Amino acid sequence: MLLAELAFSPPQQLPRLVERNLDSLNEEFYSFLEAKIRISKNEDEKETLTLLKHAVTDLMQKILQAAMNRGDISVDDVKAAGLSAPAISTFSGADMAVLSYDKLIDEVS
């Protein structure tokens, strides 16, 4: 249901949907999404789902970076959660999210 909501909602709502569903955007969700991408026989669907995956990931990194900047979480918290701190601090989460989000909007428009 969450995948359908993310995929079929207007692209402008994606950041809000990601933020509202952070707890559900976990390893299980990503495994399900990867499986959908892998088994899809439709190239357009594969591309759309792949773009959606990247956009969601980028938005989650932006949210994580913002939480780190506010001091809500530390680099140690990020590492304890099994996330890669260098991937977050090396790239600008805002820039990456905007690029992927813009590409997603272009693809679905």
If you had to describe this structure to a student in words, what would you say it looks like?
By secondary structure, the chain is mostly helical. It has 7 helices and no strands. The chain has helices at 2-8, 14-20, 27-39, 43-70, 75-80, 85-90, 93-108. Helix 3 packs antiparallel against helix 4 (43-70). The longest helix has 28 residues, at 43-70. The two termini are 22 Å apart.
Uncertain regions spanning at least 5 consecutive residues: 85-98
Strand content: under 5%
| Biggest sheet character | none
Number of DSSP helical runs: 7
Query: What is the N-to-C succession of helices and strands?
Result: HHHHHHH
Number of strands: 0
User: What is the mean pLDDT?
Assistant: 78
Précis, in short:
The protein has 109 residues and is mostly helical. It has a domain at 41-109. The chain has helices at residues 2-8, 14-20, 27-39, 43-70, 75-80, 85-90, 93-108.
Search tags:
109 residues, mainly alpha, 76% helix, single chain, globular, 7 helices
Write the layout of secondary structure elements.
Blueprint: H1 2-8, H2 14-20, H3 27-39, H4 43-70, H5 75-80, H6 85-90, H7 93-108
Helix pairs in contact: 2-4, 3-4, 4-7
